[in-house]
Each structure stands twice: as C-alpha cells, then as structure tokens.
Amino acid sequence: MRFVEAWRVALTALRANRLRSGLTMLGVIIGVAAVVVLVAIGTGTKNEVEEQVEGLGSNLLVVVPGRVDFGAAPTASRLQLSDVDAVTRIVGDRSRVAVTVTSGETVRAFSKSTFTSVLGVLDTTPNVFVRQVGRGTYFNKSDVDTQRRVAVLGASVARALFGDRDPVGQQANIAGVRFRVVGVFAPLGQSLGVDRDNEVHIPVTTAHRLFATNRIDAIAVKAPDRTSIDALATRIVAELSKRHPETEFSAVTQEQILGVLGDILGVLTGVLAAIAGISLLVGGVGVSNIMLVSVRERTREIGLRKAVGARPRDIGVQFLLEAVLLTSLGGTLGMAIGVGSALLVAAVSPVPAAITWWSLVLAFGVSAAVGIVFGVVPAQRAGRLDPVVALRSE
Amino acid sequence: MMPAVVARDLSRTYELDGVSVPALRGVSLEVAAGDYVALVGPSGSGKSTLMHLLGGLDRPTAGELLIGGRDVNRLDPAAMATLRNETIGFVFQAFHLLPRTTAVDNVALPLVYRGGIRAAERRRRATAMLARVGLGHRLDHRPNQLSGGEQQRVAIARALVTDPVVLLADEPTGNLDTATGQSVLTLLEEINAERGVALIMVTHDLEVAARARRRITMRDGVIV
User: Fold this and answer.
1) First CA to last CA distance, chain B
2) Which residues form the MacB-like periplasmic core domain (chain A) (predicted)?
3) Nearest-by-Cβ selection for A12 from B85, B100, B109
C-alpha cells in the first residue's frame, strides 16, 4: 500500500511541475537517444564493412612479404613471377591464384585525365576475387602471355574519362603508353570512404614493362574450401621462405582481416557509445539537481508526512521513485527518438545504421540506473529531514 | 488506566555552533488518558520544545518519556514514526494540509502509512471522520477550496482518523478569527469528551487556556 501511495505521489509531483519535469527529462532523452543513434551507426558501419570484406570472395588467402603487424617497417618485395609459378604448383590450379603489382599513374583519354591505381594482374583475378565486368570483357591468358596493352577500367575511372560514352574499344593513355579499353567493371561503391571503383587493371606482364620492374606485391589464393586455408598458407609461406631465405612472408586470411576490422570498429562503436554515455551522465546530474530542489521545496510536506507516521524509508522511496520515474520516462522517449533518428539516418544518408536490441536494453537500463544513482542522495536527504525543522520551514 | 504521557526529569539541549542552549531543564509531568491540558508560557519558555517531545517528533537529551506506554528512548527513527502514527494526532496552527489533495485523501494519509488498510477502507474511515467534524459535504474539495476553519477541521479529522491516545494541538486557533476559533475549540473539546483522547493544547491565549481542565505554565525551560 505504501508503495502504491509512493507511485501516486511521485506521479502527482511530476505532473504538478510539467515544464520542470519535461526539461529535466530532456537531458535523459537526449542522452539515451544519442546512445541509441551512435551505437546504431557504429554497428551499421561494422556490418557494412564486414559485408564488403566477405564480398571480396570466399576462402581468400593473401601472401605478402614482410610481417603484417602494427609498426612493422614495410618490406620491399622480392617476389617475382617465378615465385607465382611455384605457388601455383602448390595450389595445383592456376585459376585459383591471383597477383598484383600496383602503381599510382595518370590515365588520359581525349582531353580528360585522372589519377588512379593501376594494378598489374593475372587474367584469373575475376575468379579469385568477386569482380564483375559490367561492359566488355576481362583480358585473357594470351593477353597476359603476350604483354598486350589492354585495360579494364573501374566504374569511376570510366566515368571520369569517358562520361556517358561507352569506353569499350576506345584508347586510353596510361603513363604515356597507349592502351585499348576492353572492359569496364560493375560499380562497387565506397568502403570506409575509399572509392573502390577508382582503379585500372592491366596484364601483369604489361605492367612490369610499364613500371620498369619485375616485382610482385602480393599473391592471393582462393582455397578450395574453408578447412584447407591454413594448411595451404603454411605450405606457401614455407616454399616462399625457402626461395627467399632473407625475407619473411606473411599469409593473411579473410577471417583475420575481418577480425582486425571488427576489433577496430567495435572500439569505434564503444567510443561513440561512451561519448553519448557522458551526455546521459550529465542528464543524470540534472535529475539529481532538480530532485534536491524538489526536496527543499516540499520540506513542509515531508515534515507533515513524517508527523503522521511516514518512516524515513517511506519518504526516501517516494523521492527515489520520482527520480526513477523521470529517467525511465525520459529513457523510453529517448529510445523512441533514437530509433526514429537511426532509421531516418539510414534512409536519407549514406551512413548505415543498424539498431541492436542490446543498445536499447543498455540505454534504458542505464537511464533507470542513473535515476537510482542520482536520486539516492536527494532521497536520503529527504528521508533524514528532522520533522521538527521541516514543519517549521516556510 | 495507563496514563497517555509520562515524562520524568526531561531535558532538551540544543547545540548551536558549539554552544549548548538548554530549552528544557528537568520537566516532569503526567497526562492521564482523556485529560485536557493547556500548555502556556511566553515564547522561549520551552513549550514548543516540550510539545515536540510529547509528540514523538524529537527526543529528550536526558530523562524518561513514555508515550502511550512506550519508552521513546528505546525507539529508532522508524519506530518513532510508527509511534506517531499509532498514538498521536497533530493539529497545527498552519493546518499543514497537502495541497492539490482532496480533503478525504488528506484525512486518509495517516492510514496510508499505517499500512495493511485497503484504499476503500481508508476512504470509508476518512469519510466518517470528516462527517464527524461537519465536513461530510466537502469530501472532494481541495484545501484551496476550503475556508480556514474548514481546513482546520480537515486537519482535526486527519489527527483523529487513527484513533490516537494523545491529540496535540499547537495554537489550533492561531490562524483563525475569533468566531471560527471558538467553534474549532468547541469541536476539539467535544472530541476529547466523547472519545477519551487526551488533549494537550499549546496556546498563549489565556482565555483559551482557561477552558482546559488543567493548565501547565512554563518559563525558562521549567514548569512553574
């Protein structure tokens, strides 16, 4: 009964000061909404990046010279096409091995020019990675063998150089050498702010002559299935280490990349949530402040209640409930606004947002907890008021 | 019959900025059940302090105090609250009704803190008590819709709804005009007579004090 009365009194008190209650709640509303929106954006970004990494292809394994580690000095590659042949012998299927040698070059067509990454690759690339050619075709093995000057353009490069015209069959000038465009990739879009359509593929043999080098930057292998990835990686690294005893090699699997990216983006989401959490904390301080004012304002009421038999605990519970009611009401509104804003962001902007149930539970739980934590001090103060002093106050 | 209040050698000293200020210096008195006592004295004589002690709102610094047979010195704050709820009814000069709360809810408030009484039963008892003080037609009025005399009658109903042993009235007519004050006083006396509740009234009005069965005069923290 006393508990029911405490609820009734708390509701009455909040209703009696609508504007004040609303403004106090606003702090909590903004805090909770911020937590929900920012966590949604963080989670959405993480999901999108993971999708993109998985979309590269499946069961991928990339071998690079040097150690893949933060702070490790980049290692000049000593890999050559003969090493690729050795790797191909281990894999046993030429179509599962891809290579890259990359250089930044200026590409021209007609009066237009653009700076882009030019990748020397094998004709197996579309098989190893998921790359779809939108128009024309990819180059073939004989183009690679004969160092033919043919190029496949990324969608952005094609648009920059040719606009709405069909580039297939047209001439393009790469680093001062004339190439024939044989295909254009289907657009991939952006990933972490990087335009994935801003690249040009040419045969690796042609690239070697163009860049005046014979190095290979990386070798990618598509394993037949998930279980053979690790064994394959070990054998390839061992073979390459035997051929180049002075160089260290690392094999990176798709799962490792996903793990690292997931960790980074998880931290990012955590940081965003923490920043939003600070605003929730500030909202809690506001609740505490208002509750202290409320206790002072209702000193005489507290005195009277004590005189007719309210125990310190009865008074404390009443004020604590008032604080919790403020924050959980604010938390509920904040959740609704947060979910609405996240959906809006996802709908009208390129920023992805994914609402997770745990962020809602967390935000609401924290706001209710904030009410308890920040309501305790005012409630204790009210409960401990000396009834004689309280009744005397004007 | 057990006396309503027994006080032996009560003293109460306030500590103000490290200075001890004695407000009561050895007060002994006994109020029998159903007695009618006026507590008089100039301001600063200690009569308010004594009333707070007798009402279980404060504790003595030294001495023994039994209210309704219960030893105040043995009670913690929660038990003191229960003691007030079960044995004492307060009537204040300034009424002290809850604003935005109807007369019947104001009267039922002590029953809420008693616990274990259903809302319907609380309302029934409060309604009966309001009828007794002549406000059966004002149940759902709020304090700001009632006159001063009516507000004090609501306060009296609230003080009596728990069937207390002692009714403590602190200048109950102080905020009322003479005629209204007279009728409130008459009501208190009627209730004292018909219910056997001890009435202790603090007043500085000697005319009011003269109506009591007994008069206790205080000066400088002692009974004279």
Assistant:
1) 27
2) 21-237
3) B100
Sequence-distant (6+) residues with CB within 8 A of A229 are A59, A61, A223, A253
pLDDT in tens, chain B (224 residues): 688 999 999 999 998 888 998 999 999 999 999 999 999 998 889 998 999 999 999 999 999 999 999 999 999 999 999 999 999 999 999 999 998 899 999 999 999 999 888 889 999 999 999 999 999 999 999 999 999 999 999 999 999 999 999 999 999 998 999 999 999 999 999 999 999 999 999 998 888 899 999 999 999 999 98
Of B85, B92, B119, the CB nearest to A309: B85
Strands B5-16 and B62-67: antiparallel
CB A112 within 8 A of CB A156: no
Per the domain annotation, does B158 fall within a domain?
yes
φ, ψ (nearest 5 deg) of residue A322:
-60, -45
How many whole angstroms separate alpha carbon A113 and alpha carbon A200?
A: 13
Contact yes or no for A311 and B113 at CB 8 A: yes
Q: Which residues contact B223 (CB under 8 A, 6 or more apart)?
A: B27, B28, B29, B216, B217
Dig out the tokens for A290 from the structure.
């208002």
- Residue B167 near residue B191 (C-beta atoms within 8 A): yes
SS3 B181: helix
Query: Which neighbouring-strand residues pair with A118?
Result: A103, A200
CATH code where residue B88 lies? 3.40.50.300
Looking at residue B34, its amino acid is: G
Question: Any residues with CB less than 8 A from the CB of B107 and at least 6 apart, and which?
Answer: B126, B129, B130, B154, B157, B158, B161
Tell me whether residue B65 is in a domain. no
Measured between beta carbons, which residues in chain B are less than 8 angstroms from residue A313? Answer: 78
Instruction: Report the chain A residue with the minimal C-alpha distance to residue B164.
Output: A308
Interhelix angle A254-297/A299-307, rounded to 10 degrees, is 80
Q: Are strands B36-40 and B198-202 parallel, antiparallel or unpaired?
A: parallel
Domain count across chain B: 1
Rounded distance between C-alpha atoms, residue A47 and residue A192, angstroms: 12
Can you tell me the ipTM of this complex? 0.94
By Cβ distance, the residue of B57, B81, B117 closest to A1 is B117
Q: Is B2 among the domain residues?
A: no
Rounded Cα distance, B200 and B188, in Å: 10
Distance CA A315, CA A35 (A): 33
- With b for 16 or more beta-carbon neighbours within 10 A and e for fewer, the B163-174 pattern comes to ebbbbbbbbbbb
Q: Please report whether residue B207 resides in a domain.
A: yes
Q: How far is CA A221 from CA A77, A87, B51, in A?
A: 18, 9, 94
Q: List the domain range (segments joined by +) for residue B83.
A: 33-58+74-223
Candidates A12, A303, A308; nearest CB to B113: A308
| Start-end of H helices in chain A | 2-16, 18-55, 81-91, 125-128, 141-145, 155-162, 204-211, 229-243, 254-297, 299-307, 312-348, 357-384, 387-392
- Please give, rounded to a whole number of angstroms, the shortest distance from the CA of A7 to a CA of chain B: 13
Across the interface, whether the CB atoms of A311 and B78 are under 8 A apart is answered yes
A308, B58: Cβ pair inside 8 Å?
no
Inter-chain touch A307–B113, beta carbons under 8 Å: no
Rounded Cα distance, A260 and A329, in Å: 39
